[in-house]
Amino acid sequence: MTRVAVLGAGGGGLSAAVELTRAGYDVVLWNRRAATMAAYREAGEIAHEGVLGTGRTPVAAMTTDLAVAAAAADVLVVCLPSLAHGALFDDLAELGVRLPVVMNPGHTGAALHARQVWASRGADLPPLAELSTLTYVARVAEDGTVRTTGRARVVRAGCLPGGEEAVGWARRLFPAADPVPDVLASSLSNVNLVLHPPGAVLGLAWVEATGGAFTFYGDAMTDGVAAVMGALDLERRAVASAYGHTLPSLVDEMAAIGTVDAVPPEGPGALAAAIKGGAANSSILAPSSTLHRYYREDLPFGLGPLVALAGVAGSDVPVARSLLQLGSVVLGEEAMRAGLNQDRLGVRGWGRDELLASVRHP
């Protein structure tokens, strides 16, 4: 039986472990923190509800030892936030892992970041595919139950040259995975870098005043926030165009994923109405503080690499840079420096053509 090591026991990792187990795969679930894993290891199963069904699914094995998880697997599926990728890449490179790796999600820049980490150790990158966004909308309840309110219909799957085997695994494990020509197309298809920062930054007063006691995709989706979001989306697509890719708009990409249920005619209020009308995200509350990933991940690890790639392409992205600057004031420069910049992507001093040559397949 094919064994899949799912790395990460948050909403995405738990959802993947449940779905892949129910699909007939032998799953080993890994998480770095023993406290996160304790209840699941004791029960030997994952409680779940939502689009994956309601019940309790036994998982073949659970561990906090990465070497054990990797040694027993045929493929690794990484379901971790971007801010955890660097430490994991270091560990996998040190272990000499050569297994195919599927980043679900890769968000923006995962493959480039991984290549830089492996290169810094003088090692070859294993076959690695990045998905543009997580294949689930999921949250973990206080009792440990994973509530999966949506499953993506389409996400973009890209790889660096030599990573084609990992894209094959991504398509086999997650039928929503749609191959794209290179990792610039998959990275720049990450909807979260457009969807989260405007509402998080512009809604900060409300977040701090209420502790996040409002819906992020409903109450906070005002016309003003949507206007900034629309401008940021144009910048994202302009950067993609500079690299030769024509990408769908935010609302069209969300419709493909399944988090927008209907695309209204273009016009004032259309973007806000489309996002508010999506059932999968409708009950998700706003961040309770700036410790939330909408701040700590989507600014330095979403907008950060967008600005880095824009710089290589010679594209101007004033809205993205403005939101990053505000984020630096709120989170502190140290938090922002921890994100993905040109150095961590391995593209410092590169030009557009040099970057394209490094990601394009023969």
List keywords for this structure.
alpha/beta, Rossmann fold, eight-stranded mixed sheet, 19 helices, 12 strands, 46% helix, globular
Describe this structure in words.
This protein has 362 residues and is an alpha/beta fold. It folds into two domains: 3-186, 3-Layer(aba) Sandwich (Rossmann fold), CATH 3.40.50.720; 192-359, N-(1-d-carboxylethyl)-l-norvaline Dehydrogenase, domain 2 (Orthogonal Bundle). It has 19 helices and twelve strands. An eight-stranded mixed sheet has the order 5-2-1-6-7-8-11-12. A four-stranded mixed sheet has the order 4-3-10-9. A hairpin with a 4-residue loop joins β3 and β4. The radius of gyration is 19 Å and the shape is globular. The two termini are 33 Å apart. The model has no long low-confidence stretch (mean pLDDT 96).
